[in-house]
Amino acid sequence: MTQQSVSRNICNPFDDDKLHEECGVFGIYGHEEASALTALGLHALQHRGQEAAGIVSHDGRHFHSHKAMGKVGDNFSTEDIIGALKGAAALGHNRYATTGGTVLRNVQPIFADLANGGLAVAHNGNLTNASTLRKQLVAEGSIFQSTMDTEVIIHLIANSKKIKVVDRIVDAMHKITGAYSLVAQTSKKMIGMRDPLGVRPLVLGKLDAAYILTSETCALDIIGAEFIRDVAPGEVITVDETGVKSLSPFTTPPRRFCIFEHIYFARPDSVVENRSVYDVRKDIGRQLATEKKVEADLVIPVPDSGTPAAIGYAEESGIPFELGIIRNHYVGRTFIEPTDQIRHLGVKLKHNANRALIEGKRVVLVDDSIVRGTTSTKIVQMVRDAGAKEVHMRIASPPTTHSCFYGVDTPERHSLLAARFDVDEMCKFIGADSLSFISLDGLYIAMGEKNRNTEQPQYCDACFTGDYPVDLVDHNSGLDQELTLLSEGS
């Protein structure tokens, strides 16, 4: 779910130079505490979206909704809010921050009263032909109330000539291109589906007699639910009082799951596509050490996302692992108005070097990626200022050379450091003594493959290769401009 081509906030005081997922979804059907469990599930998925959260529930007769800007714990922690979300079925959504599009009407789940009843939809991903479809729908008389591509889905469902709601949803999704995991809730059932390539994650779980559809297994763990399986690419799952049914209405080419879920997006305690994320990241670090050795005294992760890979790098290289950078977990995105002087100090608001450990040492810094290079530059300088003798940067992914159009917050390509410079130039830019990235084949080896199959890649790796597996309809036709609605009063 994205606001169409909204400019991102790259000037916050902390220079949060990371790629970010746009959202996480959690739906549960058949539990008397559905809304409370949904709030807990969203809390576990907070890493996938911190801008806003919403929950829609159904009590057998009526739908109930609460949406709010900010984090889950700030808005869904009181008995009156959870108590008002009545019913044994609930659907929740976390949204990642943008600028310009930070408006309540863009918060999901999106709800509509259709001819055959109410429908709530929550969506993780991005529709690559949303603007094209939106233009057609508006010309035919549709009236949009948000800038979400998810609203296009609602209009397509409303316009479908099919009778059953599941058939109407499938009919709508046949008109869509993109990468998505979607969960919908009607008065009688919960419906989940993944795009035919399975780019974005979705899992099926169970708690007592209730079934759950959610983005990651960590959301099942927090409520003590059982992980059943991943929803297959192109699969449609329906849950109602009779149980679970599976449909396969889409042609499914070989899957292209987002490889960056393993590198960074997913929580390390999740199991994604039958692989422990934590174990995969350690394996990536081991492969990185095999490929990009360096004489050094310490391996230090850039916290927190670089930690598992740094552990793997240290184990493989034999260089001691140490926490040479300490992260402050109690800093928010709106801590202080970013004057030039404060912005210059911004990295120290989140990280500080452990001088007693680093001084006089040759240091290997391990991070998951380099996007614009702004944070890497400041981290390297901070470690040098702490007295490091040498600073070597090792990155647990190949260079990020292309933007993502599949539901990830990525700068335009000209802002990506690796799209502008080669590795030597990048090394000079960030001020390191050396800089190396894991190779593309090495990344695939760490994922348990022999190498990257160039004829039919096993994952979506477009951010490294420019090999986009889903047509970029809007982008290629110039229709992915910013939409009209940018702000609204509270």
Any overview of this molecule?
This protein has 490 residues and is of the alpha+beta class. The chain folds into 2 domains: 20-255, Glutamine Phosphoribosylpyrophosphate, subunit 1, domain 1 (4-Layer Sandwich); 272-454, Rossmann fold, CATH 3.40.50. It is 29% helix and 24% strand. The chain contains 19 helices and 25 strands. The strands form 7 sheets. The protein has a 7-stranded antiparallel beta sheet with strand order 4-3-5-2-11-10-12. Strands 6-7-8-9-13-14 form a 6-stranded antiparallel beta sheet. A 4-stranded parallel beta sheet has the order 18-21-22-24, with helices on both faces. Strand 8 and strand 9 (190-194) form a beta hairpin. Helix 8 crosses helix 9, helix 9 crosses helix 10 (307-317) and helix 9 packs across helix 17 (440-446). The longest helix has 15 residues, at 277-291. The protein is globular, with a radius of gyration of 23 Å. 51% of the residues are buried. The model is unreliable at 1-15 and 484-490 (pLDDT under 50).
